[in-house]
Amino acid sequence: MRTHCTVVFLFPVVLVLSSCGNLPGKPAPNSIPVDPDHITDFKMLFKQNCAGCHGENATAGAALDISDPVYLAIIDDNTLHKIIANGIPGTSMPAFAQSSGGMLTAEQVDAIVHGIRQSYSKPDALAGSTPPPYAASTPGDSQHGAAVYQTFCSTCHGPDGKGGPKASSIVDGSFLALLPDQELRTLTIVGRPDLGAPDWRNNIPGKPMTPQEISDVVGWLSSQRPQLPGRVYPTAAKPLGEHP
User: Fold this and answer.
1) Could you tell me the residue range of the domain that residue 83 belongs to?
2) Are the beta carbons of 46 and 115 closer than 8 angstroms?
3) Does one domain contain both 41 and 116?
4) Is the distance from CB of 69 to CB of 125 less than 8 angstroms?
5) Is 146 within 8 Å of 210 (Cβ atoms)?
6) The whole model's pTM is what?
7) What is the mean pLDDT of the chain?
8) Residue 241, exposed/middle/buried by CB under 10 A (0-12, 13-18, 19+)?
9) In terms of Cα–Cα distance, which of 46, 200, 187 is closest to 118?
10) Mean pLDDT throughout 120-136?
11) Do 225 and 173 contact (CB within 8 A), yes or no?
């Protein structure tokens, strides 16, 4: 009788314990929120922070194609980290690091740099060519740059840079106001293959641009930048009701 009672008593306890894993309200393992600062998955970080401008797969976006292996061949990881962390003042590239007012930790910026490098770099991207330096050591000669432009760029962008049969204006004030000299240099070296613009080796087949020619044409483009970017007129009438 005692043995029977024990069995009867233990059965409900075992039943209750076995069903604890299915209790209503218990969160599923994948429903527990992750601290945003601890997310280091490259694809997730890129989608949330970079894809809006650079495209979902780092291409076909409004901004520079950062999946371009030529671009990744001329820029080092330290410079790429600084750009992502601190942004590019005066342009549409914001700062993403928390230390500069953004949302990402230094570890997350590192994860993006590493992910870009691992996903898109190609060891043979330059095909044995020696690229011009990413940054210029001295300013270019804008007067000589005008002649360089005619040689390498006018076929596509027109004789005065205001647009041609194959490409749009590159002396538009709004365009130049958004691009500092370094970005103009980067675009001259890397091109925009996604838009049909060749890199520094292929404006004229068999005649790559020299580092000095790149600096000079950037100097010429920079000289076209308006002193008051974004303003249509040097002066404008004050709105009604505004006093001196």
Assistant:
1) 37-120
2) yes
3) yes
4) yes
5) no
6) 0.77
7) 85
8) exposed
9) 46
10) 92
11) yes
The gap from C-alpha 20 to its chain's centroid, in whole angstroms, comes to: 49
At 232, is the pLDDT very low, low, confident or very high (cuts 50, 70, 90)? low
Residues 71 and 65 sit within 8 Å (Cβ to Cβ): yes
- Is the pLDDT score of 238 beyond 60? no
Token pair for 182: 């370094």
> Are 115 and 44 found together in one domain?
yes
82-95: pLDDT as tens digits: 999 999 987 889 99
Residue 188: which CATH number?
Answer: 1.10.760.10
Q: Tell me which residue of 238, 184, 194, 192 sits closest to 214, measured CA to CA.
A: 184
- How deeply is 184 buried, as exposed, middle or buried, from its count of CB atoms within 10 A (0-12, 13-18, 19+)? buried
